[in-house]
Amino acid sequence: MSKARLIADRDFAVGPIDRRIFGSFAEHLGRCIYGGLYEPGHPQADAQGFRRDVLALVRELGVSVVRYPGGNFVSSYRWEDGVGPRGQRPVRRDPAWTSVESNQFGTDEFIAWCRTAGVEPMLAVNLGSRGVEAAGDYAEYCNHPGGTRLSDLRRAIGHADPHGVRLWCLGNEMDGPWQYGHKTATEYGRLARECAKAIGTTDRHYGAGEAPPVEFIACGSSHRGMPTYGAWEREVLEECYDHIHHLSLHQYYNDRAGDPATFLARSQEMDAYISEVVAVCDAVKARRRSRRTITLSFDEWNVWYHSHGAERLVPPWSAAPPILEDVYTAADALVVGGLLISLLSHADRVRIACLAQLVNVIGPIMTRTGGPAWRQTIFHPFALAARHATGTALRTLVESPTYACGVGPAVPLLQALAIRRDDGGVTVLALNRDLAEPLDLELDLRSFPALRPTGWQVLHEADLQAVNDERHPDRVAPRGGGAVDGDGRVFRARLPPASWSVLTFAAG
Ligand code: AHR
Questions:
Q1: Which atom of ligand 1 is the closest one to the Cα of 172?
Q2: What angle (nearest 5°) sits at the alpha carbon of residue 266, between those of residues 178 and 353?
Q3: What is the pLDDT of residue 212?
Q4: What is the pTM of this model?
Q5: What distance in angstroms lies between residue 439's CA and the mean position of ligand 1's atoms?
């Protein structure tokens, strides 16, 4: 039997957990919007055409912010196409996904959907085919109170109050040669800076009480394996450092090799990626002798491989084709749980993160058009973390046996994080990467006033390939982990093999 130990001191903090780490992403791609968020005529649709069953699952998931409208889609998007009377909105080609876009769902519908779902909107602007003028116009339409052409257009359409959008992504994956309007780092960094100026970087642009100040996210690399990785971040930051708040990171993980031991260790690569981008941000900060610190927006992350390439089998120029519809396994849920631990462990620098995406397209929620909605396996670790991982992430010491795999020669069997909640309690997230054996975990929380165990939810399936589908929507779900022994300060729990757990403790 392997043994591992976790030690956390209540005063040794990484930092407060920003709720925006529990963000997601809705792109005009496949059936994410049409047949996902929006399906007028569906028995569950409300008066605005929003699926109530999906809204209920989004609330249960605990999503805080939703990024929109892309993704690769945004790089040829004309936001004006999606506002105003529906009958006058043009149908366009979307070159990113070789689909056609009806524009029946646009910015105003998205903002209304966010208000109904109780999430904060995060808008991406097109820095591929468009630039400064369109970005400024979009901000005028969304955020200006009134008395200008575009704010009055919004008011005339029926939205008297400004949308008050705080989070603005300056383009998407602009380092990628596949991106419509792909740019060099210097070209992009300058454009990002000028678009930030056009959208408005200071309270002066808005006036007291009119709208919240804005936060800008500039594009980092599309993933850690890009040939320009590192240099891209540095060159972009040199151009726009004083105008932006966050730099983006994107990464999708897979088990194409059929090697679950390596797959479960991928969160170590996410840790390294975050640390490397922090190092580049701080190197630019030092060179500029700046007092400003750039934080991170990991605004696309997930497992993605089951459906990879299947989009090429769909006839081009279809409307809302069923593409990128990964059906997630129990193993994927464990990996997503590990990735969540990594994001939260870097709470000092990761302020925003978006599980990509929300519905149908590599999403935690799946629907059948005209039919029901259900929870994919990856829904569960996200929902549990969003509910219980609130407060302050602690510097968590883990003593664990290690194993060798494709990620490295000595990967700890245990990945874990302790969180000091604001109610005085503690939450521990723990991944046992051992595929065959349970792990006896000792939780040393002796610096806290006496604690008592209040719950243990565990994701563990004998069959790592088990999935949830329309007929078996709850095949993979968290279950009670059993008793947690302890004396108020030191506790013991036997983690099942290949499992992800949330353990909670209350003060007193
Ligand atoms: O989320 C799917 C796609 O992955 C997004 O459109 C793009 O930004 C990324 O490459």
A1: 8
A2: 65
A3: 46
A4: 0.97
A5: 37
